Predict the structure.
Amino acid sequence: MIAPFVTLIQGVDSFKLLQEINKEGKKIDKIIDCLIQVHIAQEETKFGFSEEEVEALMLFPELAELENIRIRGLMGMASMSSDTSLLKKEFSSLKNLFNNSKLMSFDPDAFDTLSMGMSSDYKIALDCGSTMIRIGSTLFGERN
């Protein structure tokens, strides 16, 4: 139901979800931009593809057959920590994966978005190469 209204889906964490987004895009004749969610945090509560799974996905021939999605890049959430060295390590790792994935992408020109960094760590993320940050708490306040 939301496919006509979205411009970018950030949290794609499985090939099955990519197939479903493609199916919905096909119904409305729309290419839906997506970011692959990568698990970079040290926390079990976070999820997404592992680095190895992202590399396999980028080379997966069936990915090219999904004509109603466009992989625009990667998204990751760092650990909830004040340890700046840990955050830099996680963000730098995702930036390296982004660079490698861009080279493997079926559409390298469209692979241009690295979404990492939230209200508490966005400055570190920007220093590590983020092109998109999520700062909802700064704009709207903390969640209840």
Observations:
- The beta strands are 8-12, 32-38, 69-76, 113-118, 132-134.
- The chain has a mean pLDDT of 93.
- Residues 84-104 form the longest helix (21 residues).
- The first strand starts at residue 8 and ends at 12.
